[in-house]
């Protein structure tokens, strides 16, 4: 399993609006993506968001990043400042997804 961690700074007073936009427009796109398993979204001080998506295989994640993520960026671009920090990880443990260290 692989995780994609995206951290970005949101514009002032946009925390509620971006949450609604994410729920109504981004999650449906993610749910249709091949290999998508889960989404965890975290907010800090209403000005920073960390978005963690979980994927079955690295190939699924890479395909999403190449083919679909540009449309997600376009959907959310008016809500954040700067360039999001994107990182990919291999999931080594997860209690809820029953992943154990190799």
Key features of this structure:
102 residues, alpha+beta, 3 helices, globular
Give the structure's gist in a few sentences.
The protein has a four-stranded antiparallel beta sheet with strand order 2-3-1-4. The chain is 35% helix and 36% strand.
Order of helices and strands: EHEEHHE
Shape: globular
In DSSP terms (H or I, runs of 4 or more residues), the helix count works out at 3
The tally of strands reads 4
Distance between the termini: 12 Å
Biggest β-sheet description: 4 strands, antiparallel
Residue-averaged pLDDT: 91
Low-confidence stretches: none
**Amount of helix:** 25-40%
The whole-angstrom Rg is 14 Å
Largest sheet strand order: 2-3-1-4
Structural classification: alpha+beta
Q: What share of residues are in beta strands?
A: 35-45%
Structure description:
With 102 residues, the protein is α+β, with helices and mostly antiparallel strands. The protein has 3 helices and 4 strands. The chain has a 4-stranded antiparallel sheet. The longest helix is centred in the first third of the chain and has 18 residues. The chain is globular, with a radius of gyration of 14 Å.
List the helices and strands and how they pair.
Blueprint: E1 2-10, H1 15-32, E2 36-44, E3 48-55, H2 58-67, H3 69-76, E4 80-90
Antiparallel strand pairs: 1-3, 1-4, 2-3
């Amino acid at each position: 399993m692989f995780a994609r961690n995206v951290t970005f700074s949101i514009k002032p007073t946009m925390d509620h609006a971006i949450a609604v936009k994410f729920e109504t427009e981004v999650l449906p796109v993610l749910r249709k993506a091949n290999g998508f398993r889960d989404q965890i979204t975290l907010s800090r001080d209403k000005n920073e968001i960390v978005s963690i998506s979980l994927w079955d295989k690295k190939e699924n994640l890479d395909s999403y990043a190449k083919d679909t993520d540009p449309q997600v960026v376009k959907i959310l671009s008016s809500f954040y400042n700067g360039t999001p920090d994107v990182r990919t990880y291999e999931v080594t443990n997860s209690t809820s997804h029953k992943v154990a260290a190799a």
